[in-house]
Design goal:
The chain is 68% helix and 0% strand. It is mainly alpha-helical and 178 residues long. The chain is elongated.
Length: 178
């Protein structure tokens, strides 16, 4: 008799290619570096405001653009490690096959949302570039942020596809752990 799975709030892991894990880790590292840079700039801006009476010009613009980059860079890593929000109140005692099937369904929905977001972000970036949209204070072209955001979103799509396939295969096989 198989031992029952422990009750957990964690996603069931699935096998994905190593190159994909490495690429997701690289994007998450890039996002982390941008986050650290934003933190240091914020501290410097607050210190400058306290000491000189004026913050770093455009600090809020840099935080806004940086935040969009950080979130998009962290999404693929969150997906590949199963770090997204998981509500398992009703499925805690369900078998692995059911959980993998539900996670595959959730990944399918997330894949559709990721494709839709990426498609619209591409059009938004194209329009920002075409019309020369810039930030108010620093005059940074807004489409520049999308040079990192769009590849990160494309990676999210690929990652979600691979995790969906992994969950689907695990559900078909009735695996406890992939």
């Amino acid at each position: 008799m198989a031992e029952p799975e422990p009750l957990t709030e964690h996603a069931h892991p699935v096998v994905v290619p190593r190159w994909l894990v490495a690429l997701c880790r690289w994007f998450a590292t890039l996002g982390g570096l941008v986050l650290v840079a934003m933190m240091l700039m914020t501290v410097a801006s607050i210190a400058r405001r306290s000491l000189l009476g004026a913050p770093i010009p455009g600090d809020f613009e840099l935080v806004e653009i940086g935040s969009a980059i950080v979130v998009s860079c962290f999404l693929p890593w969150c997906q590949i490690t199963g770090g997204n929000v998981l509500v398992d109140f009703f499925t805690m005692k369900a078998g692995p096959r059911t959980n993998h099937a539900l996670e595959a369904l959730g990944d399918l929905v997330f894949l559709a949302i990721g494709i839709l977001l990426t498609w619209r972000m591409f059009h938004g970036a194209s329009e920002f570039r075409e019309y020369g949209e810039q930030s108010m204070v620093l005059r940074i072209p807004l489409w520049w942020g999308f040079t990192v955001i769009l590849p990160a979103m494309a990676l999210l799509i690929v990652t979600t596809f691979f995790t969906m396939i992994g969950h689907w295969r695990a559900a078909q096989a009735g695996e406890v752990r992939a």
